[in-house]
UniProtKB/TrEMBL annotation:
<feature type="domain" description="Beta-lactamase-related">
    <location>
        <begin position="11"/>
        <end position="348"/>
    </location>
</feature>
<dbReference type="Pfam" id="PF00144">
    <property type="entry name" value="Beta-lactamase"/>
</dbReference>
<protein>
    <submittedName>
        <fullName>Beta-lactamase family protein</fullName>
    </submittedName>
</protein>
<dbReference type="InterPro" id="IPR050789">
    <property type="entry name" value="Diverse_Enzym_Activities"/>
</dbReference>
<dbReference type="InterPro" id="IPR012338">
    <property type="entry name" value="Beta-lactam/transpept-like"/>
</dbReference>
<dbReference type="InterPro" id="IPR001466">
    <property type="entry name" value="Beta-lactam-related"/>
</dbReference>
Amino acid sequence: MSLPDDLLAEVDALFHDRVAARTAPSSVWGVFDRDGLIASGGHGDRGDGRAPDADTVYRIASCTKSVTAATLLTLVAEGRADLDAPITDAVPAFAEVTLPSRDAPVPTLRMLLTMAGGFPTDDPWADRQESIADAELDDVLRGGLLFDSVPGTRFAYSNTGYALLGRAVAVAAGTTFHEAAASRVLVPLGLEDTVFRAEDARGYVVTGQRDDDGSWTPQPMTGPGAFSSIGGLFSTVRDLARWARHLASATSTAPEPGPLSPADRRLMQQAMRVVPPSVVPSSTRATAYGFGLFVEQDPRFGELVSHSGGYPGFSAHMRWSVEHGLGVVAFENATQAKVSAAADRALDLVLDRIPGQPVPVAPGVERTTAAARDAQRSVTTLLQQWADAPQDPAGDALADRVCSPNVAMDQPYERRRRALAEAVARVGVDLHADPVEEHATVPSQLRWWLPGTNGRLRIEIKLAPLAVGLVQTLTVTAEPTER
């Protein structure tokens, strides 16, 4: 897909302005679709006097969690791990943790994947734990943990939970977590620039910075350890866009092959645990957590999948539209830069410029999509007949074939014909014109607009669950031009 130059310039300006405002020394972004990276850009000084590009290496921090989840799911698919097994099976030291109540369950892998282990949110502390050894993590567990809730009952973003999942991966795979993630996910997908050690990176590795009263202070680069599964990866815009595109392809009719099945990739992107509004107070969207990924519900664009990453000296974000496969990735090298704000705005800009929102096309719903299109054509013919020959009984006979019986019962055809005539007259619409916009959030529902001399006519249909594809809701609304 190609995007207009003025749109890409607007996206680029978002990141340029952040460097100009000293949010971070450098900022880099990329826009991708189902075929690959569409465009990218970078601003500031990455550390060698040059602006970053799509192959410049940054820490991606908690974007790593999606790779952790995917690696675990490959082991589940092979029968080497069980999502409903207690974490004590893989980490015996956890048995020494006192649970918050007598009837509290030991957290399972599924609970930990969905951030429902019951532990307190722990970003500042956990971000400094990456390099500790497994034995040190065991010592932490033997010292006891605090709980904010009974395991399995509510969401709380927990790095400790994902550190435990990293150990579960290692035990099930019979190797280190880092080797399992690389051999099972990264290498098979050709993500050669996504690594756990800075010295293994092929491109220029950016140094993380902290703003200390107007001057940038370099932050130490930690190495692999027991907490790498929470956010230890380095990557590039090109590689992370490739990873996000692979995940996004699972919701298309032609999913890419890969080490994780399309069904499991779709599972990762399901809303499984509600994220309370207090956790994301600036968000205007309902948000949930899947397996290593956030899932947002947008009234205009449908489901958006995302994850941010924040490490000392770094900020990262990836997000995409489930329906379109369009997405944005972005990195900056400053503590608490929150590049997610710019990436969020960038994807909104891109999706806003798509002419209409098509009926979602996803595996298993092609039949429903086709039924909605057939119903749209039939309803178009029905409305034309009602408008051109309101007294002709053929129009009502067609309505009986197109609609389920409740439509006439909910509002008689005579009233529907009269309301249609009033709406057509109000906006001066030609019912034989082609739609100027379409929108659908699910395959069984479709909304489209016809142009008029004084506004637009909105037509909306919802299908009953019957295989014959009958219309159970038919709404026609005039939308006059504001004066």
